[in-house]
């Protein structure tokens, strides 16, 4: 439920823990940690809990690690249609609450939080040229960076502004039909016409690419 600020001030325990986000994402990293801070800051500012439906909408300007924290913490997910991804390569997120008609845009400032030594090691680690000791050191530094991001005061890591925004379109519900070629069910609006038949995109692409 999307609950207005006046009605209820969410308490810390209302939020999914960072550990749960790590479990969902598969590893702990700076991107996930900063996404975690973004999600909590936005929910606090909008006075919302984790929505079960699509009352809260998130618009991400990146498709990187942080998006998984947003999905896990805010409940805005790709499958529900209340997570919109524009991959602009920016760690910036906008959240819109349908109930209060309020929106916030959130960016992070990680200056000085991720150890500078990581920048020196990164090319070696990711090109497979690092020694075991260097990899271990890199991981140790990454953990320190994550701890610093999670512990930093909100005003240091988070820049949050209320913005005016039109309500995003609700997820559309399509009628399902069966593809006249493969017989699998497909959303009507996503079908294509091919040689007089209504076919799914998968069939259409394989028929037209050969
Ligand atoms: Zn990650
Ligand atoms: Zn088909």
Description:
With 210 residues, the chain is of the alpha+beta class. It folds into 2 domains: 12-113 and 152-163, 60s Ribosomal Protein L30, Chain: A, CATH 3.30.1330; 176-209, Wheat Germ Agglutinin (Isolectin 2), domain 1. The chain contains 7 helices and 9 strands, in the order ααβαβββαααβββββα. It has helices spanning 18-25, 30-46, 66-74, 117-126, 132-151, 154-157, 201-209; strands at residues 56-60, 83-85, 92-97, 102-108, 158-163, 176-178, 185-187, 192-194, 197-199. The protein has a 5-stranded mixed beta sheet with strand order 2-1-3-4-5. A two-stranded antiparallel ribbon has the order 6-7. It has a two-stranded antiparallel ribbon with strand order 8-9. A hairpin with a 4-residue loop joins β3 (92-97) and β4 (102-108). α2 (30-46) packs parallel to α5 and α4 packs across α5. It is flat and about 60 Å long. The protein starts with 17 loop residues before the first helix and ends with a helix. Residues 1-12 have low confidence and may be disordered. The protein binds zinc ion (2 copies).
Q: Distance between termini? A: 49 Å
Helix content: 25-40%
Number of distinct helices: 7
CATH architecture classification name of the largest domain: 2-Layer Sandwich
Give the beta-strand count. 9
Indicate the radius of gyration in whole angstroms.
21 Å
Strand content: 15-25%
Q: Give the overall silhouette.
A: flat
Class based on secondary structure composition and strand pairing: alpha+beta
Q: Could you give the order of the helices and strands?
A: HHEHEEEHHHEEEEEH
Overall average residue pLDDT: 89
Uncertain stretches: 1-12
Number of domains: 2
Bound molecules: zinc ion
């Amino acid at each position: 439920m999307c609950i207005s600020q006046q009605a209820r001030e969410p308490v810390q325990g209302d939020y999914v823990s960072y550990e749960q986000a790590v479990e969902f994402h598969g590893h702990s990293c700076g991107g996930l940690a900063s996404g975690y801070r973004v999600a909590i800051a936005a929910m606090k500012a909008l006075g919302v809990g984790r929505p079960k439906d699509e009352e809260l909408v998130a618009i991400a300007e990146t498709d990187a690690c942080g998006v998984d924290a947003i999905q896990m913490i805010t409940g805005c997910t790709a499958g529900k249609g209340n997570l919109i991804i524009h991959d602009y390569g920016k760690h910036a997120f906008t959240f819109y609450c349908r109930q209060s008609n309020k929106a916030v845009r959130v960016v992070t400032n990680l200056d000085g939080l991720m150890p500078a030594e990581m920048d020196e090691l990164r090319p070696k680690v990711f090109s497979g040229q690092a020694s075991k000791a260097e990899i271990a050191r890199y991981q140790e530094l990454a953990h320190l960076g994550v701890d610093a991001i999670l512990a930093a005061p909100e005003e240091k890591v988070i820049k949050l502004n209320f913005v005016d925004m039109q309500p995003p379109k609700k997820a559309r519900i399509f009628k399902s039909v069966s593809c006249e070629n493969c017989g699998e069910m497909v959303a009507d609006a996503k079908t294509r016409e091919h040689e007089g038949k209504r076919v799914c995109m998968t069939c259409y692409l394989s028929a037209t690419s050969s």
